[in-house]
Fold these 4 entries.
Entry 1:
Amino acid sequence: MTETKHSLLCNMSILFFFKLVSYGFLPIILGSFSSAVSCIIHDMSLCNSAKTVVFWDMEDCPIPDGLDAHAVKDNIRMGLKEKGYHGYIESVSAYGDYQHMRDRFGGFYVSHWPDRDGRRTMMLLDFLNYNFGNHNSPPVNLMLILGDISGDMGFIGAIRAIKRKCNVLLSQPQNISEVPDVLTKWPWKSLATGEDLM
C-alpha cells in the first residue's frame, strides 16, 4: 500500500471510530454484543421488495472466464429473484486491482486497492458508512461478495450491529463462512454465472 493510501485509510478509520462511538456501536464492533441489537427484521416481506446494495471484492471473487462485470450483475439480479428478492440493485461497489481488470469493468466504478488488508478495510468502512448514512431509511439488503470472514470480527460485528434494519446477503467462493446473522447465502461461482442458483 502506498504511503498516501495508508494515510488516507488511517484518517478514514479514525473518522469512523468516532462515528461508531456517536452511534453507540463501538461495543458491538469490538465484540461485546449488547442485547440492544438482539432483534432482527422479522417482516421479511419488507426485505423481499427492498433495494439491494452490493459490495464486491473482485480479487477474492473474480469475474468468471467469458463474462464481464455487466453480465455478472445481471446474474446477481437473477440470483436475488430466485431467492425471492425482487427489488432493484441500487449500486455495485467493487474493490481490487483495477489495472488488471479494467477491460472487464467498463462503466463500473472500482475502488483500486490491490492489497487485501486495505481492500477489506475500505470495504468494511463503506459497508458501515452506507448504513450510518441511511439510518432513517426503509429496510435495505446489503450484499457482501468476498472471501472467508468467519474469523473477521470487523465484518461479523458490523453485520450484527446493522441487522436491526438491514438484511445482509452473502456470496463467497467455495466454502461459505458460518455467519449466524446472515440468512441468505450463495456460492460465488453459482451466483456469478447464474448456474445452480437454487
Entry 2:
Amino acid sequence: MTTQREIPVTYEDQGHFLHFGRVLLVKPGETTLPIRYKRFANIIYNFDYRRDDVCLFTFPKSGTVWTAGIIWAMTHMEELERAKTESLNNRVFYVDNDFIQTFKDQDHREKLKKLCPDAKEEDGVVLQLAALEKGRRIIWSHLPFDLQNPDVLDKCKGSRAHRIQQHERSSYNVPQFRKLQRVLLSHWPSGIVEGKIPAGT
C-alpha cells in the first residue's frame, strides 16, 4: 500500500465570497480556494497518476476547455462522434469539480454508484471515477503544481504539461493575472480585488 503523504500547506481564512461560502488562501501557491478544498487536499496530493495519463494544469480562463477538447480528440480519433452527444466533462476528469462547489452532476453520481456501489460521494465523485477508469485518462485541474502530487511530472505525460506551464508562467504568471483582474474586472465585487475569488471559476 502506498504511504499517504501529508500536503505541506498552510491556510488563511479569507472570509465569505458569494455562493462559495468561506474561502481560504492556500500557501504555497498563493491560491484562493473554497473551504471544501481542505477535505480533498491530501487525496489530490496523493492521487495515483499513471504513465499514460495526460494532465492539463492551467490558470483559469486560459483556454483550458478548448485545449482539453483538442487533446481528447487527438487521443480518441476513432471515437470523435462521441463529442457530438457527450459533454466534455464526461470524457475528461476535471478534478477541481469535487471542491469548487457542492457537486451536482447527477450523471457522474449515477456512474460512480454503478461502478462502485459502496463509494461515498463526499470522498470526491470525479476523483473516484478517475481512479476507477481503466483506459487512458485526461486529467485537468487549475491547482498549481505545489498542490499536486509531487510525482506527477515523473509519472505521466509530464514533459508536455511542464512545457505548457513554464510557458504560461513566463507570459501570464500569477502577479500578472491578479493585476489583470484588478484592471479589467474592477467593477466586479470587491472580493475579486481582494483575491477572494476561488481559482477555477
Entry 3:
Amino acid sequence: MDAMDQDKTALPRLATTPKTLGNLWRVKVGLMAALVHGVGIYGFFDAYQWGHGSSYTISALVHVLLMLDSLPDVLYLQLDNCPGQNKNRFVLGFLAYLIEAGVFKKVKLSFLMVGHTHEDIDQIFSRLSVWLSREDVFTISSLIKCFESCSRKSNITGISQTVLTKKKRVCITVDFCKISFYMLKELKKT
C-alpha cells in the first residue's frame, strides 16, 4: 500500500496548461493504492475531506480485505517508511488485533529501507502519471477512469471514498475501536 504524490492527481489536470492558467488553484485529490498480488490493484480516491494518518491507512486496508473473496492464513504487507501514516502504534496495534481476532494466523509487515522507497505499486503510479500527461481530467470520476485504464497488466479498480462510504454505510475516518468492532465482524475466512 502506498499513496501517490498529490500534485500529480490535483484537479483539474490539463495535458497542456496555457500560461494564463499556470497559477490556477487546483483541488487536491488523494490516491491510496493497494496491490494484492495475483488479484488486482485497488485505488482509493478522495478530495482530502478527512485526514490521511494511520486511520486512513487502516481504513483502506480493511476495505481491501473486505473486497477479497477469501483471506490467506498469513498477511504479507509492505508499507512505505512513513511514521505518520504507516509506521506507528495504531497500525501495528491494528495488525496485532487482526491476529488476536483470528482473521490471520500471522502478519508479516515490511518497510522499505530509507532512500529505497519504490514499491511495486509505484510502477502503477508512474503509468498513471504518464497517462495523465496526455489527458485533460476535470473530475474525480474521470481520474478514476484514467487510473483503471493506465495499465493493461493488472485488474485495476478505482474507488471513490464517498461512493464506498455510501455502499458500506461506514465512515472512512473512524477511530481504531469503531473499525475493529464494526467492520471486522464482516471479515470471515472462507
Entry 4:
Amino acid sequence: MFSTVNTKMLNIAKVKELHNTHQPFHRPLKCLLARSLAPTTYEKEGKKYLVQHLVICDDTGYLKATSFEIFRTVPIIVTDVIVQTAANYLRPPTPPVTDIPTIKKSPVKTLHTVCGKVSKDETPRQVQTKGGTTQVRTIQVEDKPRNKVKLALWRNFAEESFNMGDYIKVQSVTLTEYQREKQLASTSRTKIEVTSPPEEQVAITIVAFDTTNKDYEFLAQIDGDLLDTYICKKELISDLLSEYESFNHDEDNKPLTDDEKLLDMLPAICVVKVQEKTISYVEKPLSRINNA
C-alpha cells in the first residue's frame, strides 16, 4: 500500500487528472502494489543516486512511483486485467521477433525483438549524455536484402561480442526516430545472441554460374535487379535437368553435360530454400525466361 502524508486519499485516475507533472505529489493513495524492481544506482553530475521503481494500481488505473512511504492497510479489490497491465508497464514481456519493415511502421518508443545479419559495425565511441560520458556502438541489422535498420548499443552493450556478417537476435530494443529515420536502441532489458539464420524460401533468377567439383555458385537476381551469390550442390540441379529431354543431346546426338544444359536455359527462374547463401532445395520446375 502507498501513502505519503495523512490527508484525504484520492484514486489514481484523480491523481492523473490533477497532477500531470514530474513534481512530488503530497497526497496519500490507497492502492495495490503491482510490481517492484530491485533498487538501481545511477550517476548524475558526479553524484550517485539509489532509486527503486514501483508500479501501483487501483480500480481506476496504474502509476509508476520512485519516491514513497509505504503503509499497510486493508486489501482493496482490483481486476486481474489492471494488475497485469500495471505489472507489464514496469517490466514488459519480451516482444516476439518482428520483421524490419513492420518495426519501422510501429510507433516510437515501442519495444521489439529483431533478428538479422550484422551488415555494418561501427567502432564504439564516447558521447556526452545528461548522466555523463558513456559509450555507444552503432550497427546495422539486415533481415532480408533492402530490409535494414540501425541499432544503437549503449553502455555495456557496446562491448558485446559479435562480428560483421554474424546473424544475431536482439531482444527488447526500443524504436526511436532521429532526423526522420526510424532506428532501434538498446534498453536495460536488451539481450543479444549470436544465432543461425532461418531457412528461407525465395524466388531467384539465375543469370550466370561457376562450377567446382561438387557445387554450383549461382549469380542470381532477387526483386528484379538485386544480384547475390548462392552455393548449390550439383546433384540438386542434375536431378532437375535430367527431366528436360529436349536438352539431353546436341545436334550431333551427343549427350549434353549438366553445365551445357544449364547454360542453354539461362536466365532461369526457380524457387529455392536457402540458409546462409546455401541452397538446400530447388523447387520444380527450373524455367527459362521466354524473352531471354
